[in-house]
Each structure stands twice: as structure tokens, then as C-alpha cells.
Amino acid sequence: MIQIKANQFPEGFLWGSASAAYQVEGGYLDDGKGLTNWDTFVRIPGKTFKATTGDVAVDHYHRYREDIALMAEMGLKTYRFSVAWARIYPSGSGEVNEKGLAFYESLIDECLKHHIEPMVTIYHWDLPQALVDSYGGWESPRIIDDYVAYAQTLFSRFGNKVKYWITLNEQNIFTSLGWLTAQHPPGHFDDRKMFYQVNHHAFMAHAKAVLKYREMGGKGHIGASFAYTPSYALDCRPENAMAKCNYDDLKNYWWMDVYAYGRYPKAAMAYLKEQGIAPRMQPGDESVLRRAAAEITFMGVNYYQSCVCEYNPPDGVTPYGTMNTTGVKGSAQEVGIPGIYKNPANPYLMTTDWDWSIDPVGLQFCCREITSRYGLPIVISENGLGAFDKKEEDGCIHDAYRIEYLKEHLKALARAIQEGCEVLAYCTWSFTDLLSWLNGYQKRYGFIYVDREEEEGAPMTRYKKDSYAWYKEVIGSNGRSLLEG
């Protein structure tokens, strides 16, 4: 509401930052780790920018103590990181790899030593290749039991130390890019029926893991993280308002309704049944989803941009336009579903070099929607700016554009909190620079500049960017410096 002035963040607010195992760790075969779907996918020519891989990444596997010391110096309250399934179960199931468990226990202990709350993502896209080879990975319902067994191992080993669990990261993204656009593993194109079936398997894995956590006596926070792109109708024409409604059901509520209510949106399901691509559900699935929905304690949100919705004629654009993975501004193409909606550019917003709209108000908007629709607390599990950062000769990195981006998004988040949204945490993406899945190392997100480019062999020295000192001040004042400035 316009008359509400944000002036503070809640006491105990978790100021954080986030990463993913494949994007930071490296050590891709160290200490018994098995191969993942990403270890194999990146070796397919043309799949990543300049054939970059996560074999070494930014070497967090060997430098995590150095990185966590930098987090502690900043005053970070929480560090969200993912566990590589193939470090724990090199073959996806069967015999556990004790060295993998020992690594994450040491990482967790290092966080706790510095009073940093570990926030653990159980699955952030790196699936053991052995499960893909054995039964197709997420394409088979067999993945559900294997995922739950893996999650149970983490709960058992770390449950007394970890209070925040994220079951799945951006289920909507890894399934869309894996089974619709062929940009992520397994690299399938326009396999819409399998796309929805894979998602159902993922929902069931999430739900059964949540229930297992509670059965084991887990009393912490647990939920999933969703890549939320809130939508605006292009104008007040009814066909464009309906395009927004359709977009929300198919691109947002399809996931969030299952997490929060344990059911699929009715209009979207009717459309999928008419198209012959609705997921097959087994007897008892709906009950499991509903019971798990009653046990989650937050909605995780990865927020980067909003979108515009307009009616798309039957012969209009498809979901398969070119994505900007090079940083050449203006190279992304308009996408949509023929006869349903399309997403034109928003003329009122600036964009990043990767054509992502910059919309701080969208963060406030999505928090309001979640609060109104689901009544759940919110964890902002990712928000950040990817940019071409430059290290000066004196080792300084002046990223005023990142400070401005984060500042405006945090102000919008503060307004949402003042309006009644319960927000538990805010995690930037990311703490250090890292591998951007399809964009290589040129797209930098971190407070810490890592001295490496696409080629391997760099020293990977850590340098603090200007944004590091800025975020340290924000954390130290619990946001007051941000809101009073």
C-alpha cells in the first residue's frame, strides 16, 4: 500500500547468500564422487558457452573454509548451498560414500562455527548419471524412492544441525529446459507429455521427502524453491487479462498450488487432459501430496524478473524461441503457447545484458501474491544480478549496478514485509562468482570476484567487490542503513 513506509526488517531476519554444488564445488571426481547428468551433458558440443564445465568450477570443494571465512567477515546469517547427490550415493542408491557425507558435515560445521545458519538444498539439478542410465532418471517413478532414501540419509546425518531444508530447486526450470527446450539434461525437445509426467514424479519425491522428514521427528523448516516469474497483463483487454490467467495457471500455480495445497489447478489440468498430455497419477498420490502440503513451512522463491502476458494467436510464437546465453543484449526471442499467451517485452523496464527484465516491484508483487493465495512464510532463496564485472589493475571491482539492483529489490521486499508478508530470509545469488549453467564464467553474480575465465588453470584468487562492503553494512544494521538512506 502506498501509504505504508518500510522502516525495518524483522529481528532475526536471515541475511544470506546462495550457491549450488555443480556451479561452485569442482572436484567432480574427488573422494569417490560419481558422475552426474551435468558432467556428461556439458561434454556435448554446443551445449554450454565456450564448452565450459563444472569440473573445477570455483574450487569451493577445496576452498570452502576460505569462502566461509569471507561470509563470516561480511556478517552473513545464512548460507544456502546444495548437496551433490552423487557425492553421497555415487551410483544414486546403494552404498553410501562416507567421504561425501564427511565433506558436507565439515561444511556445515564450518558455517555453525561462524554463526551462519546452513540452509541445505537437497537437489539442485545434478542427478547421478547412474540413475539416468538405469531407468531414465526423473522419467521413471523409481526415482521417487531413490530420492527419498537419499534425503533420509541427509536428514539422519545432519538433521540435528540443519534447521532449513529445501527439497527441490526450481523444479519448473530443470524440467522445462530438460524436456521442452533441450537446453538442460536430458536434452529432450518438445516432449510435453513426459514434461508433465516428470514433474509429477518430482512432486511425489518432494512430498514423500517432506513426510519422511516429519516422520523422523524433524521440527525444522522445509519446503521447495520455485523460480517465480510474476505476470502482468499487457493491458485491460479481456483477452490479455485471460492470457495472464492462463499463464499463471500453467507457469506459476501449477507448481505452487501443489506445494501449498497438494492439488493441481483445475483449469490447467482440464487443458492438459484435452491436449492428451496430463500426468498419470497413481492411487494414493493425491493423498500424499495433500498431507505433505500441510507439513511445509515456507514457500521458497527464486526471483529474478517479471513478465508481460498478451493473447497469442493459434499461429503465434512457440515456447522454443532462442534464449540469450551470450550476454548480447536483444538476442532473446519472444516465447509463448499458441492460442494461449505470449510474453512480449515490458517497455517500462530496463533489462540486463541477458535480456532479463529488472523489476524490483515484482518482488513485492510476488510476496503479496504468495501471502494472499497461500498464507505461507516466504524464503527468498535467490535474487541477484548477472553482469560483466571488471577487475581493475589495483584489484578493485566497482559493481555499483549490482548495489543499485539489490538495494531496490530489498526496499521492495521491506515494503512487502510492512504490508504483512512474513519473510524469513533473503539469499542473494550468489556469494562468490560461479559457473552459470549455460553462460560460462563471464556472467558474474557474486560479492566475491573469482579470478578465472572460461579456460581452466586460473589462480581463482578471491577479491571483494564494492558490493561486499555494501551488503556487510546492510546486514550489520539489519537493513536500517538501506531504508534510512
Automatic annotation (TrEMBL):
Active site positions: E382 (nucleophile)
Superkingdom assignment: Bacteria
EC number: 3.2.1.-
The organism's taxonomic lineage, starting at the top: Bacteria, Bacillati, Bacillota, Clostridia, Lachnospirales
Similarity annotation: Belongs to the glycosyl hydrolase 1 family.
Pfam families tied to this protein: Glyco_hydro_1
Top-level class of the enzyme under EC nomenclature: hydrolase
Name under which the protein is recorded: Glycoside hydrolase family 1 protein
InterPro entries (alphabetical): GH, GH_1_N_CS, Glyco_hydro_1, Glyco_hydro_1_AS
Transmembrane intervals: none
Keywords assigned: Glycosidase, Hydrolase
A single MF term (Gene Ontology): hydrolase activity, acting on glycosyl bonds
Organism: Enterocloster hominis
Claim: Oxidoreductase is one of the keywords in the record: no
Key word Hydrolase present: yes
